[in-house]
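Let us practice reading a record.
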Amino acid sequence: MKLNFLFPNKFKRIGWFILIPSAIIGLITLIYECEPSFLDFNVPAVFVGEILSDSKRAFRMVNNNVLNEILGVLIIISSLLVAFSEEKSEDEYISKIRLESLVWAVYFNYAILLLSFLFVYGLYFLWVMIFNMFTVLLFFIVRFNWQIYKLKKSAYYEE
């Protein structure tokens, strides 16, 4: 029984189409700290400290710019589409490369996280944790595509 948990190949193109602009806009807003005011909304928020102190109003509306949330959702969804869509010719060797790349990405990501625990403090550590949500998928995408590129390059030279 063959189980396939991958998206069809056509989703990879959709994922790249969403991922590249989202990542670029995200980096621009991060570097220049610009958020358009038309994305300011009153959104529900939970205040954890007030829940722990048994306050009556731990859940309330706050004014927030939702650009970061939109970009975060788009980057995560599009990264999943890019990372876990089938290749045009998916075989056992590509599955092996996919698995090895995923394991490598997890090891690499947690090595960086471990170093961050030891050497990064304060608000910078919060930024490391925020980026850490995205880096496992991004490391996997980079390594997997690099390995596929090397495979295709070696197959071209063998012909």
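A brief commentary: The radius of gyration is 20 Å.
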